[in-house]
Model the fold of this input.
Amino acid sequence: MHAGRMTAGAWPRGHARGLPAAVGGRPGAAPLLLWAGLWGGLNTGPWVLADSPERWTDAVHWLRALLPPACLVAALLGLLARAARHEAASALWRARPVRPWLCYGLLGLLCCAFSPEPLGAAYWAAAYLAAFAVLALWVPAGPPLLAVQCALRALRWSWLLAALLLGLLLLAAREVLLVQGPEGWTGYGVYGRLPEVAGMPMSRATGLARLAAVPCLLGLVAGCAGRGRWRWLGWGLALGSGALVVLLQARGAIAGLLGAAALVLLLAGPHTRRAGVLAAVLFALAFGAELFTERALQGAGRYLARGADPDHLLTLSGRTRVWSAAWQAVLEPPWLGRGPQADRYVLGEHVHNALLYAALQAGLPGLLLFAAGWVRSWAALRRCWRASRGAPDAERASLLAAAALLAFFTIRSAVEASGAVYAIDLLLLLPAMAHVGLLDAARAGPLAPGRAIMPGRTPGLQSGPMAGAAGTWTPAGWAPLRGWRAARGSGAEATSPPHPDEEARRWNGHAVPGPPPSWR
Done:
């Protein structure tokens, strides 16, 4: 089977499914409810809490503003309850990409003391750290396979919540979403045409485009790696969501989507790469043969530029001026930063760059920590992808989807504060980074038979159907049942299927009842 494809409905279920909570099994519905609460607290802020609600819509938004700090408190209580039972709190900290961003968030909390608005900054610091606390509650300590699958489950729920939020916003803006402009139909400026939804500001076109990019990338992965109806449904979803991103005319989202799509086409497999190269060559030949009229090219350029003049484009819609002012503010005392939302409180406008936002919030140490999280994420992704050759198609497709999200938000971070502040970007990026980081940690760690995540050198495995020469995992080592089934089919002496984590039988002194049903 081609390594870059997946069968219909083959998105992997938790390998450790069925493990009791005492050994790090499913943490229950509480983490999901808290994670949904963080999504429900978006597009609001501490200013809502300053006034007493007068209408029922005001009361709803007043309660929504309380959700992020309430989720933080609830998640911390859950982690403390685990510690009181003498259990390891979470396996999230095994993910190396997550650690620098957590330290960055804690440093930003300390820097609230230097903020012009300490209470407002503390609210945003608590909201940022709430994402880490809830995800830590979702990823319990225990077998490495379980931690990987819990992080992947959080990522999938984030995809679903992003699609749900996009659907609700499009439903609210259905009558004014698209208008006829000088260059054609456009969704840009919907914020001004529908300034409020139930008493709260509508998401801007850039925010809608960011949400639309998520189903577009997932559809692209399904289209490249799927089979049968899943492939066609994936391509339909990708084309529809991609058209919406273009209609919204969000240049940063378009650039990020193109970069992420190129990465997907590059990694999806040799056939997809060849098709992408062929399409690029045909486009170049058509352009060289002047098959596209000059009027059409100029119209496309004006549409993507939203009719702006060249000077406006060179300054990135005025961002270069804000970047210069932000860097000067970073170099002024106190060098530790001025806490979250420092760009709003100090400069009076959004800085539109993730690295500069991190530097304004937590100074140069925060800038280094935030950048280290990006670097570690890409390094872990590279190691995991190189080791995933011969892996099951569903595992590889999930990793490819996480890579697409990382690529999109990495490019978008150049013109937005992606990941540096509590927002949709963080709630999508953090589980993706945790999934990749935990997968890399499990791949690199010493694994018992049946615990392999990816093929790699594992000393001490000298026998068994999955052991290679000199204790090296063969590609079948990714799927523990694959070697067992091959041995049984060949008539060789076959043992019973290995438990996904033999070590879990003794975890916290509790026993695990047999192989879970998800291994069948």
About this structure: Residues 1-25, 446-520 have pLDDT under 50 and may be disordered. The radius of gyration is 24 Å.
